[in-house]
Amino acid sequence: MITKRKNHLLGDVIPVIIIAAILIVLKEFKLISTSRLLILQYIGLYSIFVLGINMVNGYLGIFSLAHAGFMASGAYAAAISSKYFFKESWMFPLILLFGGLIAMLIGLIMSIPSFKAKGDYLAIITLGFSLIVQSFLQNWRFVGASKGINNVAKFTNIYWVYGCLLFAIIIVRKFINSKYGRSLKAIREDQVASELVSVDVKRAKTIAFAVSAFLIGISGALLVHLLGYTSPSAYGYTNIVDGLVMVYLGGMGSITGSIVGATLWQILIQTLKNLGTWRWVVGGGLLCVIMIFLTNGIFGNKELSDAIHAIRKYFSRSKTNKTISEETTK
Amino acid sequence: MLLQQFINFLQLGSIYALAAISFSMVYGIAGLVNFAHGSVFTIAMYLLFYASTLLFKITSATWGVFVLSLMIASLGTSIVAILMERIAYKPLRNAPPISVVVSSVGVGMLLEYLALNLAGSKAKRMPNLIPDITIDIAGTTIPLFKIMIIVIAFIAMIILSLLVRKTQLGVAMRAVSQDKTAAAFMGIDSNRVITYSFIFGAVLATIAAGLYGSAYSIFAYNVGDTINWWSFIAAVLGGIGSIEGAVLGGFILGGINVIAPMVLPVSSYKDIVAFGVLIFVLLIKPTGLLGKNAAEKV
Fold first, then answer.
1. In chain A, which residues have their Cβ closer than 8 Å to the Cβ of B110?
2. Which residue ranges run through the membrane (chain A) (predicted)?
3. Which among A71, A108, B109, B169 is most buried, taking Cβ atoms within 10 Å?
4. A285 contacts chain B (CB < 8 A)
């Protein structure tokens, strides 16, 4: 099902603006505790992370595990740049951009194996990449080896997070409705058939990986400047699993799904915090149950704007049905 | 010195090979990347630990305890594997493969942290399951357990390959792994075969856990994570679904783990070497060393 979606850019952006207004009121009038505010920031930055993963795993349909590596490279690049070059807070956009661009460069390289390898083999290559990045950071003295980087300036605040999220949504939205976006979906459905209709598979894959890594890199940069420290252990197995869970929970190939997946999972993880380690038992069980009953994730490949469209259509149809039935009874 | 390293290589290689076969059983037959398999390994470790500690209170016959606790743990892990298959994977038989993978991630997380909560986060020490004797070969002393690990692993592999090649169940397994629909036409109940493959996988994982526990007695709740990744890598390196491939992959990883620390300045670079080799092999031969190149269907 590769149809060009109608560009409801405004329809997607309006909810974000409403949410932003609510956030401003909540923060400036201190209606919300700092811990809740922190959860909101987690939700925002992980939404960016999941949008990035969704580019490759959802729209392109490749089972990639490279996101931990991309996030690590973005986070470390940003942390180094803010420690040595961009020390002022007004330079934060430059820091974010730098983190995103370094991750994007690595993403360009990581797209090469995807030309030839497929399926589980490609999953292993991308997993290998993530674990190589982690192992490399653990042994690199300059970035503090296994201790990581400490005392990073805490530039991130809730406006930056949601500003970046808005930016990420616009990028993904524009990209998916472009020629390349549609060629991604064509490759997902059938690579051979899409080659036959002259889709440039290599170029589409390269761009998808680059955009994906860019977004993930930005989310990593935000995370570092939110926590104020980073260490290689944060970008291992748990990060990979976290990313997968949020993407497939929300739905592959859906912007709304990405945000909903990130939101639900972060809220779940944070609210279950007082269960201690039992929360992972509950979380794992819930994930399994959700997969059994909602096989394609909560949103599948649908968007919120599709739902609005469908509702509108439903009401207009029922109205016409009524008039027809009234006419027939006459 | 060289002989000692060679024995180390064989020991580690055979543990990895066994773990990789156990992973590959389910992977090849059910076509499912089972991320929960590492947790089955973890559960096997804990069951072996508790069973052998209890049994050592009654008797001191080491071999008897070893065999008996292996049997108890195999029974336990088989039950876990069957339940896992019934509850988490069977409803998803016709779903897109990726949802099954996510479901297995969930199950893996549940089991691993259940083990953590029930047994505590403190590292445990496995009692000696193999008599603590050393023997002399050409002037170097070698602990008996290292040789026994290699012998037991090879016996297990030979029994498994006989099972898969000679018995009716083995033929059915190979048929299902090649084509589920065609196997169903021949009157093979693929659900039953898949359940058996889960049981075989669990039993092999338990044997691998017993050998791992004898080699490195200290373990904690996250012991299954690394084993899961390494056996996944070994299975893919050798070629998915091929038992010989899994063995070959296991021994290659064992070799890298033993040789890399001798050559490289920092021992933790061995992961980088292992993944480098893996990526290199997959870029040249994208279906693994012994995997068959599937023709592309249009």
1. 280-281, 284-285, 288
2. 9-26, 32-52, 59-78, 90-109, 121-137, 157-176, 207-227, 247-268, 280-299
3. A71
4. yes
For residue A84 the two structure tokens come to 């040595």
The whole domain housing A122 covers 8-236
For residue B282, give the nearest of A117, A139, A192 by CB distance: A117
Q: Report residue B197 as tokens.
A: 């493959």
**Within a domain: residue A12?**
yes
A7 pLDDT above the threshold of 80 = no
Instruction: Take residue A213 and report the two structure tokens written for it.
Output: 């890594």
pTM above 0.90, yes or no: no
Task: Look at the domain B1-284 and name its fold.
Answer: ABC transporter involved in vitamin B12 uptake, BtuC (1.10.3470)
**Other Cβ atoms within 10 Å of B243 Cβ, number:** 22
In a domain, A149, yes or no: yes
At residue B255, φ and ψ (nearest 5 deg) are: -60, -45
C-alpha span between A162 and A47 (Å, rounded): 10
A300 has a chain B CB within 8 A of its CB: no
CA–CA gap between residue A178 and residue B228 (Å, rounded)? 40
User: How confident is the model over A129-178, as pLDDT tens digits?
Assistant: 888 888 888 888 787 777 888 878 788 888 888 888 888 988 888 888 88
Band of residue A1 on the pLDDT scale cut at 50, 70, 90: very low
| Interface pTM, i.e. ipTM | 0.79
Which of A138, A277, A292 is the best substitution to test chain B (most B C-beta atoms within 10 A)?
Answer: A292
